[in-house]
Amino acid sequence: MKRHCFALDLKDDEVLIEAYKTYHKNVWPEIIASIKDSGIEALDIYLVANRLFMIMEVNDTFSFEKKNEMDLNNPKVQEWETLMWKYQQALPAAKPGEKWMLMDKIFELQII
């Protein structure tokens, strides 16, 4: 399995951050299905202050192109993404329209 890590900010507002966390305690079943159907085996989101970190573990069937195409053709995913954007804001280095930014791994320690 391969791991991908991403970052994104939330709007720096405690009420909005709490609402975002509440949505993620009960993610819509269609969103969970779309994640699983794309080849994502595990997905975790962490929060510190208003910065989000997402860690995805994917199987060999996953590709960013396939996931993007699936999401664009899924009205429920589009509805979820529109809703979540009310709470999210792009990182300062993001390109126009870019949300979750793929992070570069700069260190790895493996203990055998």
Write the layout of secondary structure elements.
Layout: E1 2-10, H1 14-23, H2 29-37, E2 40-48, E3 51-58, H3 64-72, H4 75-84, E4 88-89, E5 101-102
Antiparallel strand pairs: 1-3, 1-4, 1-5, 2-3
Summarize the model shown:
This protein has helices at 14-23, 29-37, 64-72, 75-84; strands at residues 2-10, 40-48, 51-58, 88-89, 101-102. It is an alpha+beta fold and 112 residues long.
What does this entry look like structurally?
- This protein has helices at residues 14-23, 29-37, 64-72, 75-84; strands spanning 2-10, 40-48, 51-58, 88-89, 101-102.
- The chain is an alpha+beta fold and 112 residues long.
Fraction of residues in helices? 25-40%
- How can the largest sheet be summarized? 5 strands, antiparallel
Total helix count?
A: 4
> Helix-strand pattern, N to C?
EHHEEHHEE
Radius of gyration: 15 Å
Number of strands: 5
Shape annotation: globular
Assembly classification: single chain
**Residue fraction in strands:** 25-35%
N- to C-terminal separation?
18 Å
Structural class: alpha+beta
Mean pLDDT: 97
Which ranges are low-confidence, i.e. pLDDT below 50, for 5 or more consecutive residues? Answer: none
InterPro entries: Carb_Metab_Mutarotase (IPR052996), Dimeric_a/b-barrel (IPR011008), Rham/fucose_mutarotase (IPR008000)
Organism: Neotamlana laminarinivorans
GO molecular function: racemase and epimerase activity, acting on carbohydrates and derivatives
Protein name: L-rhamnose mutarotase
